[in-house]
Target: Copper resistance protein CopC
Amino acid sequence: MSSRNILALIGAAGALLLVATQADAHARVVATSPAASATVASTRMITVTFSERVAPAFSGLDVVNAAGTTIAVTSSVSDDGKTISGRTGRALSAGVYTVNWRAASNDGHRMTGNFAFTVR
Model:
């Protein structure tokens, strides 16, 4: 096999790998508010922003305090489909809170994760 054919084969394999990698990409978290591990004065709004659209029917978040009690949250997905927002009924009192989020990419890949923050 000539070096020209080998280079063509390597180029084709590289292109296939690039396409396969892009096709397998899923949404990933790019920001949260409050930020993970942050200490904030108080908040009623929690957001998780993704790198691409998520499916609203399979996306949401829960907030749990240090005692393990789930705080009531109304969740929604932004118009651009990239941000899950949760609003509590009242401002969170002092303590540590864990946000458990769930989302599905438009390709159906389901994801979960969590982060914690502190209210002083």
Remarks:
- Confidence is low (pLDDT under 50) at residues 15-23.
